[in-house]
Automatic annotation (TrEMBL):
The Prohead serine protease domain, residue ranges: 18-149
Protein name per Swiss-Prot or TrEMBL: Peptidase U35
GO terms of molecular function: peptidase activity
Top-rank lineage group of the source organism: Bacteria
Transmembrane segment boundaries: none
Organism: Primorskyibacter flagellatus
Coiled-coil portions: none
Record keywords: Hydrolase, Protease, Viral release from host cell
Length: 185
C-alpha cells in the first residue's frame, strides 16, 4: 500500500509559544479536502490505540523530523494534535520562525487507508486510517484543519477566541493598526 498525504492549513492567527509548543487539528471530520475525500469520526481510533508513535516531520520528508507529538486524539471535530518543535533541531527553529511570521500555515497527515468507500460524486469516505505522521507544510489540502492560535484549543475559554476574531475584524476594518513590518528592520 502506498503512503497517502492529506494537507491542512491553519485557520487562525498562528502562534508558537516560547517553549515551541504547537497544537491544532490535523484533520477535521466530514470536511472534504481538495481531492474530495472526507474522514469519518473513529477513523484514527485503531491507529491511535496501537501505541505506534506518530512522527512530526517537515514537509513529509522522512529525513527531517522536527519535533514530537505529545498528544494525539480524536474529539467531536477531528484529529487534535499537540506537540513540541525540538529546540536543538535547526529545521525546527526555522519552522517556528516561519509559523510566527505567517509563512507556514499548514498541517498534513501521512497515512495508509485501511477502509474506505468511493463516493458517487468522486472522492472517498475514509473510515479507517493507519496514521504514520503529521507534518508542517507550506501548501495545505484540507482548508479546515489548522494549527490553532493560542486559546483555540478544544478546552479553551471561548472569550479568548472571540477576542482574537474581534481584534482581527478591527484590524481589517482599519480601526486598529496592524503590525508594521518595516518597524522591525
Amino acid at each position: 500500500m502506498e503512503l497517502e498525504h492529506k494537507f491542512s492549513s491553519f485557520d487562525a492567527v498562528v502562534s508558537v509559544t516560547d517553549d515551541l509548543v504547537i497544537e491544532g487539528y490535523a484533520s477535521r471530520f466530514g470536511d472534504a479536502d481538495q481531492g474530495g475525500d472526507t474522514v469519518q469520526p473513529g477513523a484514527y481510533a485503531a491507529s491511535l490505540a496501537s501505541g505506534r508513535g506518530v512522527k512530526m516531520l517537515w514537509q513529509h520528508d522522512v529525513t527531517q523530523p522536527i519535533g514530537v507529538w505529545d498528544d494525539l486524539r480524536e474529539d467531536t471535530h477531528g484529529l487534535w494534535v499537540k506537540g513540541r518543535l525540538l529546540d536543538g533541531v535547526a529545521r525546527a527553529k526555522e519552522a517556528a520562525a516561519l509559523i510566527r511570521a505567517g509563512a507556514i500555515d499548514g498541517l498534513s497527515i501521512g497515512y495508509r487507508t485501511r477502509r474506505a468507500v468511493k463516493n458517487a460524486g468522486g472522492g472517498r469516505t475514509l473510515m479507517e486510517l493507519e496514521l504514520w505522521e503529521v507534518s508542517l507544510v507550506t501548501f495545505p489540502m484540507l482548508p479546515s484543519a489548522r494549527v490553532a492560535a493560542k486559546g483555540d484549543a478544544p478546552d479553551a475559554d471561548w472569550r479568548d477566541l472571540a477576542a482574537v476574531f474581534r481584534d482581527a475584524r478591527l484590524e481589517m476594518a482599519g480601526l486598529r493598526p496592524g503590525p508594521n513590518p518595516l518597524s522591525e528592520r
